[in-house]
Automatic annotation (TrEMBL):
Segments crossing the lipid bilayer: 7-30, 56-78, 90-110, 148-163, 170-187, 193-215
The protein, known as: DUF4386 family protein
Keywords: Membrane, Transmembrane, Transmembrane helix
Species in which this protein is naturally found: Yoonia sediminilitoris
Domain of life of the source: Bacteria
Length: 226
C-alpha cells in the first residue's frame, strides 16, 4: 500500500475521530459545556469521577488517535505536494508536524487531568477542581481551545493545491473555509462560532482529501475532480 493510500485512510480516520467527538459532545457530555467558554469545572470533575472510562476514551480518540492518523496524513500530503512544488511540500510538512505535536500533547494532558481529578476528588473535591482547571487550561492552550495551528496547516495545503493544481476545487474550497475558521478562533468573541466552523468543516475536508488521496494517483489527475 502506498503512502498516498495510507494517507487517504488516515484522513478518513481523522474525520471519524471528529464525528465521534461531536456525538459525545452533544449527547452524554452536553450539560458540561465542553467546547465553549462556559464549561463547568466542578461538573466536569464529578462527571469524570463517575464516568472515567468515557472521558479517557473521548480524550484518547479525539486527540491521540487523531494525532497519530494526522501524522500519516501530513506526510502523505507533503509528498503529494512535493511532486509539483518541493517548497510548498516542506512548508505543509512543518506546519503539519507542529499541529500533530500539539494535538498529541493536548490529549496526554487531558488524560492526566482526568486521572488526577478522579484521584483527588476522593479526598478533596475542591483541590480536584483546581487541579483539573489548571491542567485543562494547558490542554486548551495547546490546541483544545483554539485551532490556529490546524487552521494554518489546512490553509497552506489548500493554497498549495490551488497554486499548483494538486487538488480539485471542492477540496480547495473546503480547505480555505475550514482553515479560515481555525484562524478566527484566536478572536475571543468569535471563538465558539469559529471553532464550530472549523470542526464541522474539518470533517468534510478530511473526507474529501481522503477520497482524493485514495482515488487519484497523481496531482494532474487530482485537478480534474475531488
Amino acid at each position: 500500500m502506498t503512502i498516498q493510500r495510507i494517507g487517504g485512510l488516515a484522513a478518513l480516520t481523522c474525520a471519524g475521530t471528529y464525528v465521534f467527538g461531536f456525538v459525545l459532545l452533544v449527547t452524554v457530555m452536553a450539560e458540561l459545556g465542553y467546547g465553549t467558554n462556559a464549561i463547568d469545572a466542578a461538573a466536569a470533575v464529578r462527571f469524570s469521577a463517575e464516568n472515567q472510562a468515557i472521558m479517557i476514551t473521548w480524550n484518547t480518540v479525539i486527540y491521540i488517535v487523531n494525532a497519530l492518523a494526522l501524522a500519516l496524513l501530513v506526510v502523505a500530503l507533503a509528498n503529494r505536494l512535493k511532486s509539483t512544488s518541493p517548497e510548498w511540500g516542506s512548508v505543509t510538512l512543518v506546519f503539519g508536524v507542529i499541529w500533530t505535536t500539539l494535538v498529541l500533547g493536548a490529549g496526554m494532558i487531558a488524560n492526566v487531568a482526568t486521572e488526577r481529578a478522579v484521584v483527588l476528588a476522593q479526598s478533596d473535591f475542591d483541590v480536584a477542581v483546581q487541579t483539573w482547571e489548571t491542567l485543562h487550561a494547558v490542554e486548551l492552550g495547546l490546541g483544545g481551545g483554539n485551532e490556529i495551528a490546524g487552521g494554518v496547516w489546512i490553509l497552506c495545503v489548500s493554497l498549495a493545491g490551488l497554486l499548483h493544481r494538486a487538488f480539485g476545487k471542492i477540496v480547495i474550497g473546503l480547505g480555505l473555509l475550514t482553515g479560515l475558521g481555525g484562524l478566527l478562533t484566536i478572536l475571543p468573541p468569535l471563538g465558539d462560532v469559529a471553532g464550530a466552523i472549523f470542526g464541522l468543516g474539518a470533517i468534510v475536508w478530511f473526507i474529501a482529501i481522503g477520497l482524493a488521496l485514495l482515488f487519484k494517483r497523481d496531482a494532474a489527475a487530482a485537478h480534474a475532480v475531488a
